[in-house]
Amino acid sequence: MLPHMRMIRAALFGVIAAVMSSQPMADTTTTSPSLWKSFDNSLQRKLNTTLTKLGLDKAVKDKKLSVALVDITRLNKPRVAAVNGNEMLYAASLPKIAILLGAFVEIEQGEMKLDTDTRESLTRMIRVSSNADATRMLNRVGKQRLLGMLQSRKFDLYDPKVNGGLWVGKEYGKSAAYKRDPLHNLSHGATAMQTARFYYMLETGKLVGPRLTREMKSMLGNPGIHHKFVKGLADYPDAKIYRKSGSWRQWHADSAIVEAQGHKYIIVALAESPNGGAWLSRLIQPIHQFMVPTRLASTGN
């Protein structure tokens, strides 16, 4: 190779290396639309009307119910509606999705192996909400390491600028909290918008690489507990649900990606009421109906 050709080739490699180092392939979150800048007036009106018809407007006013709804049928053009979307509530087992993320980050970085035992443990943690597996995987990731991930610039899934987000500050058992969230003093907390953002980042490949994204989504599929959103969608057998829920005393939460008839949406709801579980089962049905409108057969002329 001629000397001047070697110089050109070296220069090209230098440019490529600079671009790769400044924009790592594993962190492309800056290219996705912000959900907070993607609100849709029409979708918001439909959500508000639905909650009023269900008699849940008082719960919304009292900040006992928060909902985030994101139409991701066109993935790069999300449409968002929310009520109390930035209100942080105790979320029971829902933040186990944060432990799932932590485990997959460790797997991607080679710090943990996705062997049969790990895969089965993570799957039980999500599908049947195993507390023992959640605590085990939390300790494998590391408690402070997980909190660091959630607050990192890469994920920003707990961000004071939007009133918090996903937080895991306690094992799933009888042990005391090791670090409550700094804004609301919660051991296991979430906001509807940040939880929706977790699912949006999953769908857009902004959490981990493509192969591990498929593994994560598979674990969220085939729910093993049939209540809340799953119960509410029982009459829609064509709906595929990828979800994580949570309940403890009067706190009830559910979160999901729902796919049906070519439509796809994210739904998150957090409730503080003894009737919260029933609220979530009821509200998902009319929401699903306007998110996945029935296709009318052509009658011809």
Descriptive report:
With 301 residues, the protein is α+β, with helices and mostly antiparallel strands. The protein has one domain: Beta-lactamase (3-Layer(aba) Sandwich), CATH 3.40.710.10. It contains eleven helices and ten strands. The strands form three sheets. It has a five-stranded antiparallel β-sheet, sandwiched between helices. Strands 3-7-6 form a three-stranded antiparallel β-sheet. Strands 4-5 form a two-stranded antiparallel sheet. The chain is globular. The N terminus and C terminus are likely disordered.
How would you briefly describe this protein structure?
The protein is an alpha+beta fold and 301 residues long.
Shape descriptor: globular
**What is the terminal-to-terminal distance?**
73 Å
CATH class: Alpha Beta
The average pLDDT is 90
Our Rg estimate from Cα atoms comes to 21 Å
Low-confidence stretches: 1-30, 296-301
How many helical stretches?
11
Give, in spatial order, the strands making up the sheet with the most strands: 2-1-10-9-8
Helical percentage: 40-55%
Structural class: alpha+beta
Largest sheet: 5 strands, antiparallel
How do the helices and strands follow one another from N- to C-terminus? Answer: HHHEEEHHHHEEEEHHHEEEH
The CATH level-2 architecture is identified as: 3-Layer(aba) Sandwich
What's the CATH superfamily, by name?
DD-peptidase/beta-lactamase superfamily
How many beta-strand elements? 10
- How many separate domains? 1
CATH topology: the name is: Beta-lactamase
* Strand percentage: 15-25%
